[in-house]
């Protein structure tokens, strides 16, 4: 992620980002990814959670609904503005900032989570180190990204090679092992979204169930979980 600037990467994308998750396949993807994030993060009532790269708050509302207090950080003002609007009435604070230099003291949060943000940060290891720094000892760090082992990633790369414009054209995809290697301690990883964009919705749920039951590492979305040593 580049230093904070007046023109951030996603400033032109909030409406299109929200529109994707409003489509039938987008809703299924969001629900599938959201369940895994909640499983790995397990937000609790009164916990203070950092949502780094919160975007428009697509997943932030799930943490708030669980009773957590959330600080949402993003580099994009338009993304943050929409997140604030959606989180009205919840204990949510929006902060514009850079994941490579989080504007928080050490051990400030019970948990830290970042979803689909590391793809756009060249020094992803430094970003993960920052998440650990601001998380208290014994706290949890969860990162979700797009999986390089998935057919979804292959299609997105092909679009980029054809010169087609899309929000992920500058993204770097990582495998579960590559993502785990960014952490300073051993962690766990799971993938979901084993169905494809073209699969009929009535079949997608069964494809997903089988993929998760088999523990496949090729789902389009990978989430890792670390516990900061006490």
Short summary:
With 230 residues, this protein is α/β, with parallel strands linked by helices. Helix content is 36%, strand content 20%.
What is the share of helical residues?
A: 25-40%
Please name the CATH architecture of the domain at 14-146 and 167-186: 3-Layer(aba) Sandwich
Q: Which sheet architecture does the biggest sheet show?
A: 7 strands, mixed
Shape: globular
Measured by DSSP, the beta-strand proportion falls in: 15-25%
Provide the structure class. alpha/beta
Fill in the CATH topology of the domain at 14-146 and 167-186. Answer: Rossmann fold
How are helices and strands ordered from N to C?
HHEHEHEEHEHHEHE
Number of strands: 7
Would you tell me the overall average pLDDT?
A: 89
Number of helices: 8
């Amino acid at each position: 992620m580049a230093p904070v600037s007046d023109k951030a990467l996603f400033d032109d994308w909030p409406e299109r980002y929200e529109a994707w998750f409003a489509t039938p396949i987008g809703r299924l993807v969001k629900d599938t990814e959201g369940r895994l994030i909640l499983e790995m993060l397990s937000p609790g009532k009164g916990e203070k959670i950092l949502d780094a790269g919160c975007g428009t708050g697509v997943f932030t509302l799930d943490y708030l609904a669980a009773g957590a207090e959330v600080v949402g950080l993003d580099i994009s003002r338009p993304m943050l503005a929409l997140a604030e609007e959606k989180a009205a009435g919840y204990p949510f604070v929006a902060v514009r900032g850079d994941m490579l230099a989080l504007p928080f003291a050490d051990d400030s949060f019970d948990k830290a989570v970042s979803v689909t943000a590391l793809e756009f940060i060249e020094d992803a290891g430094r970003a993960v180190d920052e998440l650990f720094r601001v998380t208290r000892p014994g706290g949890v760090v969860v990162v979700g990204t797009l999986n390089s082992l998935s057919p979804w990633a292959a299609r997105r790369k092909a679009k980029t090679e054809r010169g087609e414009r899309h929000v992920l054209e500058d993204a770097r995809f990582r495998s579960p092992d590559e993502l785990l290697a960014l952490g300073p301690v051993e962690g766990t990883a799971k993938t979901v979204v084993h169905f494809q964009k073209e699969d009929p919705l009535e079949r997608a749920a069964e494809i997903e169930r089988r993929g998760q039951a088999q523990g496949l590492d090729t789902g389009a979305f990978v989430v890792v979980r670390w516990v900061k040593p006490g």
